[in-house]
Amino acid sequence: MSQWMLEKEIKALDGWQLTAFSVALTERMYPNFALFSRLLEFGDRQQVRQILDGVWNHLGNTGAKMNFEVQLSNIEDNMPDLDEFDMYGASPALDAMVALFSCVSCLLDNSRAEAANIGNLSLECVATFVEVTAEAQLSDEEVLRLISNHDMMLQEEAFQEEVVRRINSVKQPNAKFIAELRELAANEGVSNIGVSDD
After folding, report:
1. CB of 94 closer than 8 Å to CB of 80
2. Within 13 Å of residue 31, how many CA atoms lie on the same side as its CB?
């Protein structure tokens, strides 16, 4: 799904649909933070996992309550400073936390801008990974072509399209729908850039 198409699709979403789109993409990015957090003993993975679970529980109407306004500052505390961590892994970890911040903001405000931000952020995260792992001698044009045709980018676009398709297929989410969307998003613990914390 191109950036333009993504924004067009998001304009058609509303209310719970925006949060569902946002949390599904954030879930797919979560292992990027979890692995970085574990390897560098940074942040609080358990707290981040609980916040993400809280968004899913809110969507699934499980009855569990969470003060999401308070969680925004907790998410900020888990954002790695790229000046402090001079390594590639900090960047997708930060992307995952920015996505979670936008996800909770979307839940609070039903913001299409926040949902679109997460969609674009996830695509950019994949593009950066492809660029960083590309052969050094490629020209800028060749890198752009590699990014747009790379399996990971095609998988990310297909994933976002599938999330939108599923969200548009129901008027109101039930627990079964949310559980299935969550399973799709979790991708057996593998992130949008192929990272796993298992």
Report:
1. yes
2. 15
